[in-house]
Amino acid sequence: MSGAALGLEIVFVFFLALFLLHRYGDFKKQHRLVIIATLLAWYLCFLIVFILPLDVSTTIYNRCKLAVNSSPAESNGSYVTPAPSKQKCFKPWSYIPTGIMPIFWRVVYWTSQFLTWILLPFMQSYARSGGFSITGKIKTALIENAIYYGTYLLIFGAFLIYVAVNPNFNLQWNQLQTIGIAAANTWGLFLLVLLLGYGLVEIPRSHWNGAKRGYLLMKTYFKAAKLMTEKADAEENLEDIMEEVRKVSESIKYNHPLRKCVDTILKKCPAEYQERMGRNMDDYEDFDERQNSYPSEKSLVKLHKQVIYSVQRHRRTQVQWQILLEQAFYLEDVAKNETSATRQFVHTFHSQEPENKIIQYFYTPTVEWYWECLLRPWFYRVLAVVLAMFSVIVVWSECTFFSTNPVLSLFAVFIQLAEKTYNYIYIEMACFLTIFFLSICVYSTVFRIRVFNYYYLASHHQTDAYSLLFSGMLFCRLTPPLCLNFLGLTHMDATISHKNTQPTAYTSIMGSMRVLSFIADGFYIYYPMLVVILCIATYFSLGTRCLNLLGFQQFMGDSEMTSDLIDEGKELIQREKRKRQRQEEGENRRREWKERYGNRDDSTRNRVVQKESSFSEISTNRSLSKYTRSNGRTERDRIELLQDAEPLDFNADSINDDPLESDLGRYQPGGRYLSMSRSKIFED
């Protein structure tokens, strides 16, 4: 089994990262380089989390071998081995041969750092660029990242000058490399504690609230009201952008040098807008630079960028609205079925997607009723209690992991007890559960946070390229300090345990933090204690209350604004529900009519089609002979008839004499004042 566990986890983690990326990204529409870069970043970060427990068990076995092969007072190189145990050292089932792990960690770590500090920021700017060529996009990305890269180069250059001038520093290349790693880990640890403090409280609380049906339904109504506002804003923004595109498309003709750029912009527009703009095109007209002023290429690049953003946002809000409607309908069904005497789950609407037959066979309406109405609330409560216990253990260990005599960190106590008996299965399971829980608290916060409309991970393939790349950057910057923090909690890091024992392979590539003693003995030890304050702030929802005071509506039970939004969302859901019911009733009537009179309608329809086809042939022949003789006269008569035509439902208030506004085809409320001004009622 030597190396088999490593190979299995490498394959499993790859498919896990691929599954999550498929859930949030869109493989068909997004660029392949964006998908590959994001997949590589997620894969490397998840791989570190899954492989680190194997590194811990292998290190404990190597320490055991050193202890058995040497005397108690004998030193083995630079490591002082402990007293040998009376029990024989057994090789773990997941043992990794010596020399593989250092090379593996070095490749994984430096690849992730190259991605997060150099490649992914460049690809972010490249993805958001509105350029029409690869060269233009690369130029824009370099200009946008010049300040970003220049700042780091300036700091690094100033540090090198300080080291060269100061005689007290005699740094070698390995020490300089360690300083760079320490700087990156310090930045990551600063952000890690902030995200961890939120996740340690919010994850257990969200599962506890998940057992409350009324709470979930009210929160869904609240989300519906907010999403409808965002959806309307996205539609209005798209209309404005499409209007600008229409004006540009009509001004730049087919033989203009910038027409290729306009065609590229039109391809990014929705299909209905493309058809509408295509009907209004008069490509037979030539352009004249002396008579008209045309937009520049720079303005077209800006417009192209706005089109990409507005179309993506509009599509995302449409999909999220449909998903939220399904969720609200399902929660309302659960609330109705809780009082059902038949104990069978009844859905108001049938699922629009075809269900798996195997799932239908086992997940019957009776099983669904017992799970949704009886078992699921209790399961969520038990899970919330277990997660809350893990959170308390993490907070206690974060505040006491620096104490080595006595050992107060509970994770270190568990690992040391298992190390005495060399129970490698227990060691790997304890390490995996610990680092997995820490990763869930941190990574789930990354998936939940939203920075306005610039960074937002939306499921169901609705995440844009910029957000995917930004998430890859965050994962690569948070994972190394997360693993170092885990090794500190378990006292597997020699910097924390103050023991001159063999370090893990992951710690060995990080170098000795003793080069920067104020970071190793100060920041790394005392800054994680800040997680206590952050957990208290999250428990009392201080951040939510501050955002609510600033005008960002948040879900708060004691807020009047929240109650108003809940009522508004409930009305929106009920309106969509009635619309869905009318659609299903109409489909049922059409289905019944077809089943009852299907054969008769088919024969009648065939006779009507035959008559219409013969009549159309006769009328076509007549019209052809007619228009070949007097085409110009007929066109003039048709125009005069259209000018003299007057609709039956005539309303003077809706008249608009502005030809530009009528040509735009957008709604302009005339109002009573406009009609009164036209009738000159205010003149003397």
TrEMBL record:
Disordered as annotated region, ranges: 575-612, 644-684
Keywords: Coiled coil, Membrane, Transmembrane, Transmembrane helix
GO BP term, example: adrenergic receptor signaling pathway
Compartments where found: Membrane
Membrane topology: Multi-pass membrane protein
InterPro entries the UniProt entry points to: GPCR-associated_LMBR1 (IPR051584), LMBR1-like_membr_prot (IPR006876)
Compositionally biased tracts (Basic and acidic residues): 582-605
One term under GO cellular component: membrane
Coiled-coil region list: 224-251
Pfam families the UniProt entry points to: LMBR1
Residues passing through the membrane, by range: 6-21, 33-52, 103-126, 146-165, 177-201, 378-396, 425-446, 523-542
Family (UniProt): Belongs to the LIMR family.
Name of this protein: LMBR1 domain-containing protein 2
Organism of derivation: Merops nubicus (Northern carmine bee-eater)
